[in-house]
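Hi everyone, sorry if this is the wrong subforum. Our group has a chain we'd like a structural model of before ordering constructs, and none of us has done structure prediction before. Sequence below.
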Amino acid sequence: MDNAIYTTLNRQSGLMREMRTVANNIANVSTNGFRKEGVIFAEHIAALDGVEPSLSMATASGRMVNLAQAPLAQTGGSFDFAIEGDGFFQIETPQGNQLTRAGSFTPSAEGELVTQDGYRLLDLGGSPIYVAPDAGPVAVSQDGTMSAKGSPIAQLGVFVPADPNGLLHQGGTRFSAEAGVEPMENPVVMQGFLEESNVDPVSEISRMIEVQRAYEMGQTFLDREDQRIRGVISTLSR
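Answer:
Right subforum, don't worry. Here is the predicted structure as tokens:
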């Protein structure tokens, strides 16, 4: 197969991956705590035999997660928490402890605070947070200390990954930290607020249009190459 076709097919594959990523961002524009993603393209250059120039191919080799702070929306919910600045809440999942910025929690039947998916919220020491049904109104200070009727209950765990570059998106609003996590110094937790998605729908739609046009240009080239090759084969077979 011609080198130009190989290069274009590789490019088309990367553009398809970027299109899926942009579509996922748009689908989560209203998901609290969602972090938009992007695709990282890497260029690979190989020397060719003879006098031909080198061959350059671009591959979608990685993902980039945008950790920029999103706006905070006031809800007034007692168990709605948002973090100002860096940091993540830690939750317990079947795949191990993971991180999230989605701070909407509810008490389970056992009185433990859980996410919308039923994953338990963990305190600073890595233990589930229990709120007794008769505890009364719960207040949370900016450092994450929870109290009811003036008595401390627990302290929300706010963590940062030990290696920010090792943060892996596991799906939805959940992340895992390959190198582990560390307690964040001087966290700022807001009770009665939720962080919105940091996806800008206008820029994502614009990007989707750009990717779609680039893909169509590549497809047009492949169609013309296919017609050219068919013509050559037809001519030689006469």
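For your construct planning: Helices lie at 3-27, 201-236. The chain has two helices and 18 strands.
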